[in-house]
């Protein structure tokens, strides 16, 4: 049994070795098709004993005696096809060629999917980087705000001494007014004018003491609310920092996904 006959008898088996859907052809050295096996889902519409196309991969293989690899667009057979034509030699004499026509539909789908993944990943990466930047800026702003509120709290604490001083003056003034009232009473008729002044001094002292108490209550409320704000800002700042770290990790993961998509695209070109 000669080489071509042997190959013809095993062409179906040779086709099954290819994991992808393909058609297989064996020709003699003139380009006449000796055997043809169609693909599972496509047919290149050639017949045994017909001649291969003069401008095709098989004809070029027979003309040059070299392997030929050619990708055909959708327009030729209704789907992208990769043709591989290999010359057959017997005792260094070219006696024919064997070729496979493999559909690239799956590879084309894979390539488009990988391109879509890469494009989407790039968009998500840009968005997460923007979110990370915003989170970092938010965290910095909260730190600044925290410092300013702490300054306010410290300023409020600083007023305690002033209020204590004013309260002391009010007490002393009240005592002074009381003493003046006692002396006015002793002076009798001659101390009436002085008694009025003493009364006003005591009234001013009482008003000052009341004002100090009100101011103290207001400042205490400011201090309490500022403390609460500090707690909220600390918590928010911590969350903002965590968000910034998380978005950076997401960005890195998506960059790896983009890299994987690019690798898929390269693999789809090789298959």
UniProtKB/TrEMBL annotation:
UniProt entry tagged with the keyword ATP-binding: no
GO biological process: signal transduction
Keyword terms of this UniProt record: Coiled coil, Transducer
Database matches in Gene3D superfamilies: Methyl-accepting chemotaxis protein (1.10.287.950)
One Gene Ontology CC term in the entry: membrane
InterPro entries to which the protein is assigned, alphabetical: MCPsignal_dom
Pfam families given in the database record: MCPsignal
Methyl-accepting transducer domain residues: 103-271
Coiled-coil region: 110-155
Protein origin, superkingdom: Bacteria
UniProt-listed SUPFAM superfamilies: Methyl-accepting chemotaxis protein (MCP) signaling domain
Protein name per its UniProtKB record: Putative sensory transducer protein YfmS
Gene that this polypeptide is encoded by: yfmS_1
């Amino acid at each position: 049994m000669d080489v071509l006959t042997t190959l013809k008898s095993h062409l179906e088996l040779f086709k099954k070795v290819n994991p992808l859907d393909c058609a297989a052809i064996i020709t003699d050295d003139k380009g006449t098709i000796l055997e043809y096996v169609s693909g599972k889902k496509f047919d290149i519409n050639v017949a045994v004993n017909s001649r291969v196309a003069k401008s095709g991969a098989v004809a070029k293989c027979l003309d040059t005696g070299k392997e030929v690899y050619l990708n055909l667009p959708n327009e030729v057979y209704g789907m992208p096809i990769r043709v591989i034509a290999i010359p057959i030699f017997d005792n260094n004499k070219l006696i024919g060629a064997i070729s496979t026509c493999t559909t690239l539909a799956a590879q084309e789908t894979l390539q488009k999917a990988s391109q879509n993944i890469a494009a989407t990943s790039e968009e998500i990466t840009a968005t997460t980087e923007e979110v990370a930047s915003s989170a970092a800026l938010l965290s910095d702003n909260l730190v600044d705000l925290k410092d300013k509120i702490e300054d306010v709290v410290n300023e409020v604490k600083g007023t305690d001494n002033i209020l204590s001083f004013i309260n002391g003056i009010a007490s002393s003034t009240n005592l002074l007014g009381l003493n003046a009232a006692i002396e006015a009473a002793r002076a009798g008729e001659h101390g009436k004018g002085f008694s009025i002044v003493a009364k006003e001094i005591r009234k001013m002292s009482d008003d000052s003491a009341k004002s100090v108490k009100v101011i103290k209550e207001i400042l205490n409320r400011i201090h309490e609310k500022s403390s609460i704000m500090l707690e909220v800002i600390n918590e928010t700042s911590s969350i903002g920092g965590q968000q910034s770290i998380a978005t950076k990790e997401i960005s890195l993961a998506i960059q790896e996904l983009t890299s994987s998509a690019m690798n898929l695209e390269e693999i789809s070109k090789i298959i």
